[in-house]
Each structure stands twice: as structure tokens, then as C-alpha cells.
UniProtKB/TrEMBL annotation:
Source organism per UniProt: Oceanibaculum indicum
Record-level GO BP terms: transmembrane transport
Gene3D superfamilies: Bacterial extracellular solute-binding protein, family 7, Periplasmic binding protein-like II
Protein name: TRAP-type mannitol/chloroaromatic compound transport system substrate-binding protein
InterPro entries: DctP_fam, SBP_TakP-like, TRAP_DctP_sf
Lineage start: Bacteria, Pseudomonadati, Pseudomonadota, Alphaproteobacteria, Rhodospirillales
One MF term in the entry's GO annotations: metal ion binding
Keywords on record: Metal-binding, Signal
TM ranges: none
Signal peptide: 1-30
Keyword hit for Signal: yes
Matches recorded under Pfam families: DctP
Residues bound to Na(+): W216
Amino acid sequence: MMFWKKAGLRTLAAGAALAVGISLVPAAKAQNVEWSMATPWAGGHWIDLGAKRFAELVGQMTDGRVKINVFPAGTLGSALKVTETVQSGVAEVGHNWPAYDWGIDRTGVIFGGWSGGLTPEEYMLWLYNAGGAELWKQWRQEVSNVVVVPCGILETEIFMHSHKPVRTLEDYKGMKVRTSGAWAEIATELGASTVVMAGSEVFPALERKVVDGIEWGGPGINMSAGFHKIAKYIVTPGVHQPSGAHECMFNKDAWAKLSDKDKGLIELAGKLTTYETFIGYGKDDIEGYKFLTSQGGNEFVQLDPSFIAAAKDASFKWAEKQSASNAWFKKAYEHQRAFQKDIANWSKFRLPIGITQQ
């Protein structure tokens, strides 16, 4: 998916580069590199709009000095172990959701998105106005020994495509659901049993009723995945994942080979990709929701306010527990919570979305 013509991109990139003090004139001694990017994605939405678009922008903005070839899940390593693939140098670059590193450090859910976290707009502000991006980079360098550039904002997800309607906690209890990240544990506190699986396994698991329900993405990506064809009920809102973010990570030795100029341009490419994913997923979700609600084969179900309140309560209790034993989790969580308190004032002077259409 393309949102800017090349001419417009170069104009924007030039202006942005000047603003941050980066020259777009190629460095005489800059080293040309061709790298491989590992991803957790089998194909489609996230690999095309996120990973491939980032690679394209890096190539354009560095005038071809940095070329990144994107590979689907499993080609260069395990789909859920992109960080290890990049650390080892099997791939110089990775496109990842940081919460997939759940088993190594649960701090990843604060940056990747979780049930107590931020909306898409709030993520943009936290990352680039409130220091969230710099904190993310510090965490990855210290814990994972990789260089990270935030490179994607995710949509608010559909709570579940399900074989049964879910409105209350009583409905949810005893269900077997596919999920990931923090919700894999928080959901069990609410009575469900959870299964974490790679993206390529989600559709067949739901189709064969290995699981009762799944969460994956927003209306746009879920429509393209076809979940509505195999499960009658679509449950909203996505209290488990108000939004999230992707990271583009680099092997530290590979990163060191770049000029400072190209490093700066890659950082800028990450920001541009973050913006493009923000508006791109939003566009897809508007179209996807319109399609899903017009087909007639599904029933949309709204979670009861009591369920939403219980989920929020369980989420913050879970986070406080993690903070007690993980210094980096505590640091990132408290940083994000402080921002949430600041932005809570928005409701006092901003109109809710859609109110002008009522």
C-alpha cells in the first residue's frame, strides 16, 4: 500500500531531514549494504504495509546505500523469535512485535501494546512527544543488545472472533482462546484458558474449533484473513489491545557499519512508517468494519461495561505484580502511566470522535 508518491516523499523527507539536521547529500565514503529482514508475518497486511514499506523507505532515503530484503515468517528463523535471529546475525534486520519476547522480558508488552495501554493516537504522542521511543531504544539495547527503531502504530483490535457470543465474564469463563502478550495471563484471571500460536496457525485453529475464539487485529486485517467466514460472532471493543506498536531492530555489529547520516535517515524512515501505518490501518479498519457489518452472516456483540471494568482492573493489578520483580517493566510501566494521567485531560477540551456527525 502506497500513501505518498515518490516526489512527495522526497520533498517531505528533505524537509524533515533539515529539521533534524540530516543532510540528504550522499556521503562520499558511505558503505553500501544489502541486508535481510526476518519477520513474524506469513504475508499480507503487516508484512506489506509495515515491514516492506519500511524497507522501501530506507532504500529511497539512503539513495540505495542500504537495501533491505524482507522475508516471511520461518524463512530466516522462528516466527516468534525474531529478536534471537537478529542478535545472532542470521538476519541483520527484524520487523517485530516486542511482546513476542514475552518469555525473555515482559517489558515488551508496554511498548508492544496491552490491555492497560494506549490508543493509536496516544501511542504517537507518547513515543515522540513524551520520550517513549527513547525509553524503548534504551530497553532493547540494555536487555537485548540490538538497536531498535519504532516503525509502526497498530489499530485497536477486535476483541474476539468467536463460536459463541461473549458479553459478560460468565460467558467468558471456560473458553479456550488464542491470544498473546499480557492478555495470555490476564485472560486466565478472568476465567478463560489461553493458547499462544503463530499467525499462520490462527485461522485453522479457529476453523477446526481447536479454540473457541481468537484475537488477531482490527476489522481491516481480520476481514482479509477471513475469520468472519468461520466464526459467527464478532465481539467488540478490543479491551485486550487498545493499540500497539511494531519495532524494526538491527544487529548491533551491522548497525555499526553505517554512517551517522544513514543511521539518522533510517530513524526518519521509522517515523514515516509509523505515520503511514497509523493512517493506513485506520483506512483499512473503516472499510473493513463497513464490509463486516454489511454481509449479514455475522452477529456483532458488545462487551458489557462490567466486563470492561473487570478487564481494566485485572490488567493494572497484573502490571503492578510484574513491576515488583522487574525493574525495566516498572520503569516503562510507570512512564506510560504518567503519560496516561497527563493525557486524561484531553476529554475536558476535545470532542469525542464522531460527535459532530450525531
